[in-house]
Amino acid sequence: MSVLVGNETRLVVQGITGREGAFHAEACRDYGTNLVAGVVPGKGGQTAVGVPVFDTVAEAVEKTGANVGFVLVPPPFCADAYAEAVDAGLDLVVSITEGVPTRDMVRVMRTVPPGGTRILGPNCPGVISPGKAKVGIMPGFIHKEGHVGVVSRSGTLTYEAVHQLSERGIGQSTCVGIGGDPVIGTNFVDVLELFAADEDTGAVILIGEIGGGAEEEAADFIRRELKKPVVAFIAGQTAPPGRRMGHAGAIVMGGQGTAAGKMEALRSAGCTVVESPAEMGAAMEARLQG
Amino acid sequence: MNLHEHQAKALLAEYGVPIPRGKVAFSVDEAVAAASELGLPVVVKAQIHAGGRGKAGGVRLARTEDEVRAAADAILGATLVTKQTGPEGRLVRRLLVEEGVAIARELYVSFIIDRSTGRPMCVASAAGGMDIEEVAAETPEKILTVTVDPAMGMQPFQARRLAFGLGFEGQVFRNGTKFLTALYRAFEGLDASQVEINPMLVTEGGDVLALDAKVSVDDSALFRQPQVAALRDIHEESPLEVEASKHRLSYIKLDGSVGCMVNGAGLAMATMDIVKLAGASPANFLDVGGGASAEQIENAFRILSSDPEVRLVLINIFGGILRCDRLAKGLIAAVRKLGVTLPIVIRMEGTNVELARRMLEESGLDFTTADGMRDAAEQVVRKLEAVPA
Questions:
Q1: CATH topology of domain B21-99
Q2: Where are the domains of chain B?
Q3: Active-site residue among B5, B98, B184, B196?
Q4: How close does chain B come to A210, measured CA to CA in Å?
Q5: What is the ipTM of this complex?
Q6: For residue B356, what are the contacts with CB-CB under 8 A and spacing of at least 6?
Q7: Phi, psi of B78 (to 5 degrees)
Q8: What is the pTM of this model?
């Protein structure tokens, strides 16, 4: 098993005829993801990346049994694409789009019924279950099948962690980028719940960054519920307060959301917290051997 | 994006939030003219993107025309140093001249997006005019909060709950609930990430007014807020950061000597961290974007090398899908074209990394290639020791 995506994934790419859409749809398919459809309003009936294109997500679901969406559209249209996926009842919808207005995400999250579609992102690299499926823009080849779950607010820093693991022969069950925006669909705790229940995941790497309280909430969950080793790193230990560090959500405000506070919370929850981003892989190796 | 107080108030007023009468002034004469139009006394307020102006001498009461002239003359062109400006301070280029009002009570109210619920939240307190973070830390029972359902908007019962909690009665209660409801509409309508009124004022006549206003608007929503986008004051931003934003580079100047060029915000922060852990100090945060195109790298070099503090450049690119040989080619071209003479330590990962290393080493330029992030940080420290300060 793995979480979120795997052999049962039937992928529909929203925005498949765009340059980015076509490129990443193809890369996901080449990795082994079961790409079944594309959606572009007004282009129903065409074919792209070898799959049929539909006007609506609902139609793609009806005709192809698609159950996971991948949104590759510009920021002003992202929330609408998410909402359409929710309305069509997909299990999961992922978007990598950067620059989605916060208010749009606030409203879209309100439309998800209890137990409804899981939204991942925006502004994230997506999700990959190595050897099975990827729905995202991460380089597939750095990953390796195995039993460490990775969850992160960052993109390239996640690749760094995965690279350090694979280099040591440590494979991953599923790697999830939750995104760096202030309001996101799936948060740390949601993913940790999945990892806790997943028999295939034996340990977890959590990569947080400054801003907000999501890492503190994760620490709370880990203390109470997660009986698996966790290695954590928090980016932004040297970031000045009051400045947004690239990601819209990465800002220390009024003494809240500091790296030091997050590291302490995770440490007190029993995580191995590394100060250096170069130590993530080694620390996991040590935890697995210990 | 942050706004000046006078801009914020003008926008809030459009949503029905009551504000004192006031006029913006860019010169002493304009300030005097504004005061005579408004009627004395007036308050002359420095307009900069930083709080703590009062304590720094940037807000003065003026009872006569001479006092207006003196206050405007003293504040305009002055550099205010507040706890939010940093030690270098901020030059005052404009003033807000506002009617004086008779204050009965000062309170606090703000709207933000509560990240843990993903919903708008109102934070209010009867302890106005104070640092709300201090109030929250020392007397949390004085803080009232209400979470708003975005599909419903702020409900009348929520406005009443806040107004009762703030101790409003009679006419002030009615004015207060109207104020709070209008403020939520402004927060939503402007795509604000924060609207803070500190203090919210109750006048002796029972009016409720925004005496100060801080509005920050979500940068990602500026495409649909042209009225707000037009208010940008680039004097309030660092010139290098303005230049970087033109090239869609995310750059923040810090005070160290190691110029950092990284793809991805998380990795960029982590790179700063590891530089610091190794005993050096990052000169900046710089994210060239996930793809790190040749053009972006050239722009990034131009910005990095215009910071005189930079003595060495560290490049950390996790290419992934990006081919490293292509990256190396772009790097060599940019360094040659711009005549960069700073030593460069480069760590990269991705397809064709071996070929890329050879290309860099054979280029004849001062590149040091590193194997992994720790090695990169160690190379940086070693190189810095060899470079004259």
A1: Dna Ligase; domain 1 (3.30.1490)
A2: 21-99, 103-229, 239-386
A3: B196
A4: 9
A5: 0.94
A6: B324, B325, B327, B328, B348
A7: -80, 155
A8: 0.94
